[in-house]
Amino acid sequence: MKVMVAVKRVLDYNVKPRVKSDGSGLDLANAKMSMNPFDEIAMEEAVRLKEAGVATEVIAVSCGTAQSQETLRTALAIGADRAILVETNADLQPLAVAKLLRALVEKEAPALILLGKQAIDDDANQTGQMLAALAGLPQATFASKVSVQGERLIVEREVDGGAETLSLPMPAVVTSDLRLNEPRYVTLPNIMKAKKKPLETVSAETLGVDVAPRLQTVGVEEPAARKAGVRVPDVSALLNALRDEAKVL
């Protein structure tokens, strides 16, 4: 059973985003970049499936610039067997990424495709669903537990009303939630081993995929600063202040 995991290079979650002076996007110059946390959870789950003897090979995939090789090396250090980078300088949007992943799915024929439920840079939560639709595969989103029973995939997921358990035929697409697992700490020996693992680079043109943006960013701006709080002497003053703020008679 072959497992493919999509990982994305994003601004590190510990770094405060800075908006460019012209409002065209985020200023990523000299900013620390890392693997999207939800994708890291997906990679951890794939490695656990291999360690349990369920999966035979784990393939890490990323789409983006040459710098994304760093993210793939991290995936290899976590436990992926090999990596594929679809290199492009285009501004990739979820639909373009889904098309690129579909091309790789057709080439590699994995039994399971794992992705993070969303990326923390755009919070789109679209790529997994689009990939499933384009490839005609069953999908399970927001997975909190994944197991394989024979030829079927059992996925537990959280929904508004509680919990839901799905049984899917494979191949299938699954997106990971925070509660799926806790990613392991990457050790120095594994980082050194990752340097010797194969990392293949292909271009979007080679895959025959049009990655031209369909959406245009009109502008990006920082959120408004929070107002300072005020102290009130008693409950009555608090209620009056709340009424004034809400303009309630």
Automatic annotation (TrEMBL):
Pfam families: ETF (PF01012). The keyword Nuclease does not apply. Residues 23-211 form the Electron transfer flavoprotein alpha/beta-subunit N-terminal domain. GO terms for biological process: carboxylic acid catabolic process. CDD domains: ETF_beta. The keyword Plastid does not apply. It comes from the Bacteria. GO terms for molecular function: electron transfer activity. PROSITE patterns: ETF_BETA. Keywords: Electron transport, Transport. Its cofactor is AMP. Belongs to the ETF beta-subunit/FixA family. The electron transfer flavoprotein serves as a specific electron acceptor for other dehydrogenases. It transfers the electrons to the main respiratory chain via ETF-ubiquinone oxidoreductase (ETF dehydrogenase). Heterodimer of an alpha and a beta subunit. PANTHER family: ELECTRON TRANSFER FLAVOPROTEIN BETA-SUBUNIT, ELECTRON TRANSFER FLAVOPROTEIN SUBUNIT BETA. This is Electron transfer flavoprotein subunit beta. The lineage of its organism: Bacteria, Pseudomonadati, Pseudomonadota, Betaproteobacteria, Burkholderiales.
